[in-house]
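Tutorial sheet, problem 5. The two components below are modelled jointly, 1130 residues in total.
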Amino acid sequence: MAELTASDSWTGDFLTEQGLITLSQFDEASRLSSKWGTSLIDVLLARSWIDADTYYATLAARFDMEFVRLSEQAPDPDLLTESEVAEYMRELTVPWRKQNGRLVVATARPGPEAIVYIRGRWGADVDLVVTTKPDLQRAVQQVFSERFSHRAVFDLAEQDPVMSAQTVFTPAQILIGWAAVSIAAVGLALKPVATLIVLNLFMSIFYLGNFIFKATLIWAGGAHQHNRAREINSAIRMLRDEDLPIYTVLVPMFREPDVLPILANALRKLDYPTSKLDIKIVLEEGDHETIDAAVALGLEGIFEIIRVPPSQPQTKPKACNYALRFARGDYLVIFDAEDKPEPDQLKKVVVAFNQAPDNIACVQCRLNYYNREENWLTRLFTLDYSLWFDLTLPGLERLKVPIPLGGTSNHFRMDVLRELHAWDPFNVTEDADLGIRMTQKGYGVRLVDSTTFEEANVSQSNWIRQRSRWIKGYMQTFLVHTRRPLHLMKTIGPMGVLGFVFFIGGTMLSGLLNPIFWAIFAFWAITQTGVFDLLFPPILLYLALFNLLAGNGLFMFLMMLAPFRRNWLNLTPFSLTVIWYWVLMSVAAWKGAWQLVTKPFYWEKTHHGLSKHTAAEVEKAVQDQQAVT
Amino acid sequence: MRVARFQPVVIFLLLATALITAAWALNLRGYSSASDLDLWGRALLANSGLLSLEDIVTAYPPLPYIGTIAFSAIAPGLGETTPFVFSALLAAGLPVAWFVKLRGFGYGLFTSLFIVLVMVLNPQFLRAVAEGPGFMLLHWGIWLLALGMFNLRRGHRVNDIILVSLALILISLSHPFGMVLAFASLPFIALVIPPDQLRASPREVFLVLLFPLLFTLASFAYVNWVFAGDPLHFIATVSRETAGLGAVSAAPRGVPFLTGMLAALAVIAACPIGIALLVQTRRLPPISFAVTALLGTLVAASLLAALLDVLPSIMLVGGLGVTLGVACASRWPRNPARNSTIAMLLFGGMMGSIVVTLADSSQETGRWLSAIAGNQVVAPDTELAGLGYALEGYDGILFDAEAAPSVVALRGEATGMWTADTTQFQFAGLQSIPKANIVVVRGSDSGYGVDRVGRIFLIFSNEARLATICCLMGNAGGHMSAGTRNQNEHVQITLTYSCCR
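Model answer (structure tokens):
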């Protein structure tokens, strides 16, 4: 067991002497403190073995210092500097006020280390007061709330407007779209059959290209899939805790109080020294139920709760942008509330960054589901995700095509994230957009073989809501990054453009077009009508038939391959039912397209916690927590 | 490093040049394989618009057929040698794939070149090149199958599943013998599936491996149903020439089982390295099981094909062992004696191939050997050749050309023919009056059966059985009869075909 720091040792002795904690609590807290890599007081507070107010007040009395509540006696804003926010949060020390010409510094960790720091930072001519950790964090947030809130929304739009989805369609895009529609209309009026044949030909060629590209991706993704994993696993064994960097973990949540225990449990299980974790639970200021639940669970002792002030658009990227201002890590990762990352994920990512070239700014881990066997939808969703994260994204990486980042478990280099103005709050798939933007700015994304398990949607309507947001976001991303086609070609190269068009454009367009072709095919198959003969001259008919058969067969086959890597072969036969999944996807695509025009920035909230497994996971997490206490 | 990147390109160019030159040299001596003639005749008909799309897309095997049509569009002007050149290009690509893989498995530049050269010069491989694109695609299929099978059991890579699945599709759609090969492979696939997956989810693993093949075959049947109204229509489009079986009148093929055994021995003779690898890696199941599966597939397919009377010549079947031999060489365990052992075994394979070549009594192999020896050879079916030459320069020929495409190939063009898909043919059928300059009808006693002209004009077919002269209708053709052009061929033509006034 690692020894306690001088401060912790002294604090423990003092609290035991005062009868505020028992000896056995002190021993257990020492053990947990060592295990979690965090301070003794954080453990005591997290376990509710001591009341925060009592602790800080007693401590202040012991040091003969004043105890102040920053929530009631806020710090002087003029004394706080924006560029030092991360440092305030790390040291839990802020300049509070000037009294009698002397600077008064408030600290939430009184002790020898804090005094050394304060003297080094502000000199010896200062007075000290004690405050609580949550108060201090909250006070700093409040001072910068307005500024940070504005930046969270408009930083990208103001600094790099061409990369922001705030403008949905640029005038040039509207003009080109209008011209295309006009040409088609004139063609239909003058030569209707020829025009329809040309349109049909374009769509058929698109389909052919789309499925050839996807097959190529899977092939490329499957090759050498184990090599890097072996390298990283062996490098992890060489890591020393003291060499690990500070890691910020952002967990944006909205109205999800029920899943908090899963999150707390999963984060505690991370194989990373807790003292080097900067975990921020990002909550909307008005989301009282989740805030109350987090406080009630005692999470504030270990995790920092960031309250995002209300503003529009109320999106996850805006909340993350806001929280980013308080982050103090060298790296940053986003997890969803119900996520269960594999414990060694952060270490794997650190190794991956160490091994990667300098331009690698993001590491994407794999996502998958823990409730895959719950119903038909969760099985198909698992196949879909396995195909995406286990095969398709490695293919994109190998072919050097920009990678649209997936919802969570993307780990960033903090300096680059800030340089790029972080996430676009107007884009509802901000992560996918950031991946493409990163590549355009000369940075790369690397994949690491570590999985975060999530809750798969169990309800089809909920799934459609989620997928419609994703597809709408893909449309936004496509529109943003095709504003400057030549620039795009110059920055990501021809292969990148091809991949971007087929991968981002193809995913949304095939969802939109499929119902049209299915309807034509079904009508033709049932009625054997000859009305479509004119639109399908022989070669085109063969191409369309080839696309229909080879394309559908290929996509079903790819779905079958998806679970191989994880040996979840019992899911394989469900690939044969994927057609209904595609129907749902088309519904979502049309919904997304409609919302792009009517409510472009609206965030279709996915409801979590609907799964029976999630309930079981919550119960298990609570039991784990109780077992520890 | 940069030079190494161009090595495959250089090898491809050299091999393609050599093989295409050889193809032309053989063609100058009158050699074209029966399957190439058949394929080229169909391609000519398709390119001239005398075959409907329906006929093209429902024909079996589709890959060499559509490949040849596409290749003739890319490289027009090659004439009768088009399928041969196409086959040569496919053949030139395969050794490049061998070379790349051998280098990847740690063979030095010169050893890799040596292995590739020995295998390319193997007479059984060269015979496959001369046979046509269908058989070369089979070689590609066996190569991909071997790559997949060697890795599948231990790799857990989806690429290996894709390779096996893709190979089965390629094999099935390239040649009628390929369909037998794919069927024969089914029990052996179990040997190469990772044991944990086979124990836990046997149905699921087989579903993944066989789904592409089953879906492709179902799709092909569906296309047949859509275009020809019968899902099994393609069976009728398979000709013996396409299957590399020669004409029906060829010499008796002997006891099927023994013929099959002979073909199986030809495989072993071409691939002694397979047996040696099996012994060498008997304690390495991923390798030894894969070799067993691959050899077992070829041997079982030989026996099955013989029983079904669809076995091509033993030289062609055995030739697949050459490609398998390279795959085995690439997976030979690394040890100091590897190069010398491999050289010895490949030399043994070469000797085996020479023995098989000399033992193969099929007509096609005989023609090929004769042409290789520098002799002028006659067409594989002299009757059809005679008919083809006789029809040169004429117009308005009512002819079920699809039933004998090599006639079109030997005639050199499809123009002037009224084939079954033309309006003239259908009009003639409706009126029951052949207003053509020439009517070509297959005799009812032909081993191939009556063709569509014969079914419409039954009287011609019956007369053709008795006919002794090829007759021309109309003024244009009246001046010249086939007999006057080539008396000898004329006599043979009348055995199965007749042109009637």
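Marking note: Residues 2-28 of chain B form the longest helix (27 residues). Full credit if you identified this.
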